[in-house]
Design goal:
The protein is α/β, with parallel strands linked by helices. The chain is 46% helix and 12% strand. Among the domains are: 191-230 and 250-415 and 443-574, Rossmann fold (3-Layer(aba) Sandwich); 580-773, P-loop containing nucleotide triphosphate hydrolases (Rossmann fold), CATH 3.40.50.300. Its main location: nucleus.
């Protein structure tokens, strides 16, 4: 009964609506001083009439307030994008209004109690409040008793994170003014705290939003810089944004990058904690320059990434992958910590304003996205995720830091204990690049969320409570079938080892990009009053930074970089020419004539059909002779493999097939028959060679249906034609041959094998056939 009266609809609507004497007449119960109450009833009739007049006047004064609320709601309903989010925001603002009205009610009641001399009614009010508080405590105890053992363990694990949050909130409250002074120079604030004007939006949505310029640095080499085209001069004022009024400052489009030297890393906007953890030297004063803490490659890459430009670097290898991983882990941690510190600073300011009695409805802070995850790192295998987490922990955690759920992570992502696999690797030699990729846990289906605190790194955080998401394309796609809201506020996207992702299934990567920045279906406990306006307007794709690292130049990755990235800060693509000294054709040790056949094709979409017809009509008939036995046909694409397999079946060729789906027993049988000459042709896919690196014996002739994706595969396969791997009846005859098919759309692969200058000559020459002879004395 007491709680029903306290939560009634007539309480807290207006100020000064009467003392508690009016409230006591509504309830039942035993009064201690009935005589005194009856004697004073007649004397208070005039007071009640005056209170009624005050209520009528207050109702008249409240009419325009209601009209204003309705007009504002109508204006909000006119906005088309994200109408569901606006409706959520309205409901949350109404809840805040109810809370503020209750606070005003409590203040008015305290003033009325001071002015009222009736002690018996104070006793009644206190009894009602005590009964309500008792009921609330019972409900809290009942809800608390329903918490399971798993929830209790999570609470224990999160204690350290909450302690860090409290400590950082106090620190940010004192250092807030100092950080506000650096807003004009920090790339983070210049990129995310400003809105896009209408002119830039028109440029970004145009068919050709970028113009290219070239730049050359010492470590990165030749860079193709994509900058926004200059807008036409327009004297009219820019149009306001879709949500909110026109603000004073807009984003500034990116310009040509400038490499700074002799500047401490902290002046780049990097947090001091990260700088101190990056510098492992004893007694360091955190004033070392970026050149002293980073290698030349790291310094130049971090300069580009720190300005939130899109970067495509296709020269990653097993020697520099750790340096590159350090760069993007440092950048992502710095981004997450700045975003987190900004939220804590604004929380402290709101708390301080509330303590001082300032109305917080008029204070607006836009510092969040639609959901919490800000960084997405796509990695191919679990061993890559282990290296990323180890690098994050090394850069973030001090000596007293801790990693929550570390044991579980080591158990699920650690190296698989397989004695047979270890014996196989010891028995056969594998190249260094193969060992770098496939050492450790090679499972390609995983996803994990990581929440970042100042002294804590929590693994296995919920996707909507995590700051960084690490996932493989397959692991992410299995989750996207059920939910995709966690991808709507990604601000930094990192694709590591893109070439390995291409060998897995490139369609999964494209599927992830199709689900970025879609309208969320649920609110996910987001305070929409704190969401940035450009996120509500649907412009998050123009703020997202894409960092793509690969070991080879892939046309698919280049297309993804150019078409899926619309960053107003600009894009940088690394394009270095392959010199003659670094070509892989020079690594062919066996004496082997290599014939490169160029076939004509008008478009890239039609090149697959033209290649098939050219091979089946001009190349394949030459290998029907008995002298052309033991021929291996190397096929990079699985679709071409199926097409050729069906053709050979139709033409009754004596051939074997070896692909990534062939069982081990059948694969060993096919290899043995091919070595003995019982199978004249052998179809061999690139993915099988990538995952197994088999030493195929008995090859006397080799045909590259298409140039390999990895340039080092070409000399590896050509060197298998030496006499040590030949059938005894073919040893020493020197009749081995190599045939290669290529077109103008295979220019990146051809340049990696023969060099950029020679590839340009072969593509523009009038002769369709070019012959190389390697090895010999």
């Amino acid at each position: 009964m007491g709680r029903g009266r306290r939560g009634g609809p007539k309480r807290g609507n207006y100020k000064n609506h009467g003392s508690r004497g009016n409230k006591s007449t509504r309830g039942g119960g035993n009064f201690k001083n009935k005589r005194k109450f009856n004697q004073d009833r007649d004397g208070k009739k005039d007071d009640t009439s005056e209170s009624k007049r005050q209520k009528l006047q207050q109702e008249k004064e409240a009419v325009p307030i209601i009209e204003e609320e309705s007009s504002s709601s109508e204006s909000e309903e006119e906005v088309k994008p994200y109408t569901q989010l606006l409706s959520m925001f309205k409901s949350s603002s109404r809840a805040q209004q109810v809370l503020t009205s209750d606070e005003e009610q409590s203040d008015d009641e305290e003033e009325a109690e001071d002015m009222n001399d009736q002690s018996n009614e104070d006793d009644i009010g206190s009894e009602e409040e005590d009964s309500a508080q008792d009921d609330e405590e019972v409900e809290e105890e009942e809800s608390g008793s329903s918490v399971g053992v798993a929830d209790a363990e999570e609470i224990d694990e999160e204690n350290s994170i909450h302690e860090d949050l409290e400590v950082e909130s106090e620190e940010e409250e004192h250092s807030g003014d100092e950080e506000e002074e650096t807003l004009s120079t920090d790339p983070f604030h210049l990129h995310f705290d400003r809105e896009i004007n209408e002119n830039l939006l028109e440029i970004l949505t145009s068919p050709k939003p970028y113009e290219t310029q070239e730049l050359k640095w010492k470590a990165l080499g030749r860079m193709v810089v994509h900058l926004l085209t200059k807008p036409e001069k327009n004297t009219s004022q820019p149009k306001p944004t879709l949500l909110g009024e026109t603000i004073e400052s807009y984003v500034i489009p990116g310009s040509l990058p400038v490499l700074k030297t002799g500047i401490p890393l902290s002046e780049y906007g990097v947090k001091l904690q990260l700088c101190s953890n990056l510098d492992t030297r004893p007694l360091s004063d955190n004033k070392q320059t970026a050149e002293e803490l980073l290698s030349p490659l790291q310094h130049e890459l971090f300069t580009l990434a720190n300005e939130y430009r899109d970067v495509y670097y296709p020269e990653m290898n097993h020697l520099n992958n750790d340096e590159i991983r350090t760069v993007y882990c440092l950048h992502t941690l710095n981004h997450v910590m700045k975003s987190r510190d900004k939220v804590l600073l604004h929380n402290a300011k709101l708390k301080k304003a509330k303590e001082n009695g300032v109305a917080t409805d008029e204070i607006e802070y836009r510092d969040q996205g639609l959901v919490r995850p800000r960084v997405l790192i796509i990695a191919p295998l679990r061993n890559s995720a282990v290296k990323i987490v180890e690098k994050l922990a090394t850069l973030l955690l001090p000596a007293k830091g801790q990693i929550i759920n570390k044991d579980r992570f080591c158990k699920e992502f650690g190296e698989e204990k397989d004695g047979e696999g270890k014996a196989e690797t010891k028995k056969s030699y594998k190249p260094e690049d193969f060992e770098a990729v496939f050492t450790g846990n090679t499972d390609d289906s995983f996803r994990i969320g990581i929440s970042v605190a100042k002294r804590t790194l929590k693994l296995y955080a919920g996707f909507y409570k995590a700051d960084i998401l690490i996932a493989s394309p397959l692991g992410a796609r299995t989750l996207l079938a059920e939910d995709f809201d966690f991808l709507c506020s990604i601000e930094v996207l990192v694709i590591d080892q893109t070439d390995v992702l291409y060998m897995q299934n490139w369609d999964h990567v494209l599927h992830i990009f199709q689900h970025l920045h879609l309208q969320p279906r649920e609110q996910h406990d987001t305070d929409l009053g704190r969401v940035r306006l450009w996120a509500l307007n649907g412009y998050s794709a123009h703020y997202r930074q894409n960092l793509i690292f690969s070991s080879v130049a892939l046309p698919e990755a280049a297309a993804l970089f150019s078409r899926r990235g619309t960053n107003f800060a600009g894009k940088v693509r690394i394009e270095n020419a392959v010199t003659a000294s670094s070509t892989t054709v020079c690594r062919v040790l066996v004496q082997l004539p290599q014939a490169f056949h160029r076939f004509p094709t008008p478009t890239a979409a039609q090149s697959a059909d033209d290649r098939y017809h050219f091979f089946t009509k001009k190349i394949l008939p030459q290998y029907r002779d008995q002298i052309m036995s033991n021929t291996l046909i190397y096929i990079p694409s699985y679709y071409d493999y199926v097409r050729l397999r069906n053709h050979l079946h139709k033409e009754d060729y004596n051939f074997g097939q070896a692909c990534e789906y062939t069982p081990d027993g059948k694969l060993a049988q096919v290899r043995n028959r091919f070595f003995l000459g019982k199978k004249r042709l052998l179809l061999y896919t690139e993915r099988l060679h990538f995952y197994r690196r088999l030493t195929m014996k008995g090859i006397h002739h080799i045909i590259f249906y298409q140039l390999p994706t990895y340039p080092n595969f070409y000399p590896e396969l050509c060197n298998l034609l030496q006499d040590a791997f030949q059938n005894p009846k073919y040893r020493g005859d020197g009749s081995q041959t190599c045939t290669v098919l290529y077109s103008t759309f295979d220019a990146p692969r051809l340049a990696g094998i023969v060099g950029s200058q020679r590839a340009a000559e072969m593509l523009t020459s009038d002769r369709p056939v070019h012959l190389f002879v390697s090895g010999g004395s």
